[in-house]
Design a protein that fits this description.
CATH class of the largest domain: Mainly Beta
Largest sheet: 6 strands, mixed, barrel
Oligomer: single chain
Number of domains: 2
Strand order of the largest sheet: 3-16-13-15-14-17
Length: 421
Amino acid sequence: MPGGRVKRWAGLAAPLFLAACTVIPPATGPRPVPARPAPGAVPSPAPQTSPPVNAVALGVAPGPALTGLPLATARPGAALRAFIESCRALLVRTDQSGLTRPADWRPACTAAPTWPATDAAGFFASWFETARVSDGRSYVTGYYEPEIAGTRTAQPGFAVPVYRVPPDLVRAWPFETPFEQRVGQPPLGRFDADGRFVPYYDRAQIEDGALAGKGLEIGWAADPAELFFLQVQGSGRLIGPDGTVIRIGFAGQNGHPYTGIGAVLRDRGLIGTGPGQYPGSMQGILAYIREHPEEGRALMRLNRSYVFFREVTGDGPVGALNVPIRGQASLAADPLMVPLGAPVLLAEADRPEINGLWVAQDTGGAIKGANRFDSFWGAGPTARVIAGGMAARGAALILLPKGTLARLSALPATAPQQRRR
């Protein structure tokens, strides 16, 4: 894999991890907004719930000054362009991390569009301060925009359906769920013929035809394994034999938990470097599925989660902020830990190409917890190789508008149990 595009930042680990700065005390984050009941759901009183464990609840500490960090080698130009695209969301959305308010971003967002592109590093140094959430130690994987063989209509060689969100996929509380347990969003599922709310069809049921004949197909893929990995990535392109391109993006999920099949192979002793083992990368997993088609089909079905798509237009796949995500500039992050739209500085990684400035513009089902990120690498063969094998550990700093940390330091501390991880 290519490496060394960003110089390794020797000596930065100490200020990131060990700086004895004043720790911002945990404070109460925003309460979750109750979900609107789905049609047919049993009404329930709004329960009193504890606030979610977010970045403020875990603890936030000031990081080093940006003027002392080598921003010029951190791809600041790409990060500035991504930040500008994120501003329209930053200025209106509620920050689940508890770190910022929409008004905090206005000065930087006002300055960004006219800032000289040749001084992108100066923009970040002028408008932002750094913060370390929890211990600041990061784990970063990768994703990309797959390009797989596919067509708009079924035809010989293209028989694997790509589905849109089914209309019977809804959120509701099962009748038997006690009122006191109805906390947060109701689960996803469907109402069966008897009016009972039941889990939605899982991957095996859908692949066996549970949605066939309902007119939900937006395309047809040639290879079920390639479509499986496109679902894991969350967006991609269907490329027809005549070169026609259909860009599809994440639209919904069936409500079943995600199971990483790489971990399953590892538990079975099939991942490694020994005889009969496969590399612990997307390419290695795909090789196993190709060489063991029956076992591979059963393996993929262990991941009961199933992703539905929508056709998208524009010059890039769209992330959780509803803005295009950019290769080597966009990160998926946990919105409880990072304000979506915020710049993130990754450093001292054991994969040097991950070091640099990124912008948190997306989310992911497996991207949960402090300093857990998924890096987007774009489309094409190089992006596929890098993203498929990306697993980097290093340090992370969240860039917040100047003055944010001073405001947070004045917030009241919460009870000790709210500091749990």
